[in-house]
Amino acid sequence: MLQGLVIRELGEGDLDAVYTIEVESYPRPWTRNFFRLMAHTSRDLFLVALVDDEIVGYTVGEVDTRSNGRKLGHIMNIAVRKPHRNLGVGTALLDELERRFREAETVASFLEVRESNLAAQRLYAGRGYRLLKNAAGYYGDEDGYVMSKRLNKTNV
């Protein structure tokens, strides 16, 4: 784990740094407006990772309640600045988001990942995520995979 790593909820003034990481990380980045929307609708599940007071990563999640009443945690996005990748930042963000999903009594967590993003797939598989299904054309320019992980065994 990276020395001095702090995970906290998104704060006022953090969106510019988050958006910079987004643009650096993805071929089709989310818009600033979408991040603003998520900041208002999922404030407790929009987390940033800091090292020496610099935002080096973020994750955004939401809790999806299904028609049968089961709650699922959806990891909508996670990204880490290039110089801080493979140092445990993504793992720390993922673990904290899962902890919050468990507090919200979700039974499982799921996410989508690009077929070409092997590093992210390794991270998720290493944290217990398994391939649920292929998602043909999910990203428009590329197929994706849906991966999931059981969180609260007592609630399944």
In the sheet with the most strands, the strands line up as 1-2-3-4-5-7-6
Q: Helix segment count?
A: 4
Number of domains: 1
Q: How would you state the average pLDDT, rounded? A: 93
And the CATH topology?
Answer: Aminopeptidase
**Which CATH architecture would you pick?**
3-Layer(aba) Sandwich
Structural class: alpha+beta
Sequence stretches where pLDDT stays below 50 over 5 or more residues: none
Structure summary, number of beta strands: 7
Shape: globular
**In the CATH hierarchy, what is the class?**
Alpha Beta
Query: Could you name the CATH homologous superfamily?
Result: Gcn5-related N-acetyltransferase (GNAT)
Kindly state the percentage of residues in helix. Answer: 25-40%
**What gap, in angstroms, lies between the N and C termini?**
31 Å
Strand content: 25-35%
Query: Biggest β-sheet: count, sense, barrel?
Result: 7 strands, mixed
What Rg do the Cα atoms give?
15 Å
SSE arrangement, N to C: EHHEEEHEHEE
Task: Looking at this protein, list some descriptive labels.
alpha+beta, 4 helices, 7 strands, Aminopeptidase, 156 residues
Structure description:
The chain has 156 residues and is of the alpha+beta class. It has one domain: 3-Layer(aba) Sandwich (Aminopeptidase), CATH 3.40.630. It has 4 helices and 7 strands. Strands 1-2-3-4-5-7-6 form a 7-stranded mixed sheet. A hairpin with a 5-residue loop joins strand 3 and strand 4. The longest helix is centred in the middle third of the chain and has 15 residues.
